[in-house]
Amino acid sequence: METSQNWYIALEGNIGAGKTTLAKMLAEELDASLLLEQFEDNSFLPKFYKEPARYAFPLEMSFLAARFNQLKNRLPQGDLFHPSFVADYCLFKSLVFSRITLDDDEYSLCQKMYEIIDMQIRKPDLIVYLHRPIHKLLLHILKRGRKYELDIAPDYLEQVQEGYLEHFKSMSNQAILIIELDGADFQDNPVIYGAIKKLIFRHYNPGIHKVRL
To answer: Which of 53, 86, 113, 178 is the most buried (most CB within 10 A)?
Structure first.
């Protein structure tokens, strides 16, 4: 994948992995359109962290609708000046989180809705998953200080991590790059950031590819 082409990169990762930070850095340097998930506009999110059982279903359905609307409206509109895209999420993350938070009946409904709308969305040329140990995620969450995230349990982050890795196994037609960052800081370390850029713009066949930095 060359930077001169009309490419679409989607970054994924657990809560606190650094996907939004990396998406902003890549989009600015490479002059690409930036697609950021508008999670702060979701009124169900702080309610969910207080009462998960009560608010899980409306939260997941509202996220699915918001992600679909943004991707459907933005992705086809590449232009001569910004023909490429960097996103800090994928539509399928709705399935990953729903599998954890919803009961079987609710998850089945969410999955049916996802399957209907997923066919209408352009797929990324490459999905980049930022993998970090749970204790590093907790440090990042604490550092950024979003009040409603401060009580997130390590067990929940473990479930999210496992959910992503399990879901990737079903995506045989998609090129997926898993970068194991551990404690690597790409925001303030140009060497690490440069290494990530080189990895992203290599050619990858469909399937899972793992690299440790």
So the answer is: 86
Taking the C-alpha atoms of residue 123 and residue 144, their distance in angstroms, rounded to an integer, is 30
Residue environment code for 143-176, b if the CB has 16+ CB neighbours within 10 A, otherwise e: eeebeebeebeeebbebbbebbeebbeebeebbb
* pLDDT tens digits, 34-77: 999 987 678 898 889 889 889 999 999 999 999 999 999 988 76
Which parts of the chain fold into alpha helices (H)?
19-30, 44-50, 52-74, 93-101, 104-118, 134-144, 154-168, 190-200
Give the chain's domain count: 1
What CATH number has the domain bearing residue 171?
3.40.50.300
Burial label for 1, CB within 10 Å (0-12, 13-18, 19+), is middle
Residue 3 resides in a domain: no
pTM score? 0.92
Instruction: Determine how many CB atoms are found less than 10 A away from the CB of residue 197.
Output: 16
- Residue 166 within any structural domain of the chain: yes
- Quote the tokens at residue 188: 């303030």
Residues 6+ apart with CB under 8 A from 13: 19, 129, 130, 131, 132, 164
Chain segment 82-121, per-residue pLDDT in tens: 679 999 999 999 999 999 999 999 999 999 999 999 999 9
Would residue 39 count as lying in a domain?
yes
Which strands form 207-212's sheet, in the order they lie side by side?
33-35, 85-87, 8-13, 126-131, 175-180, 207-212
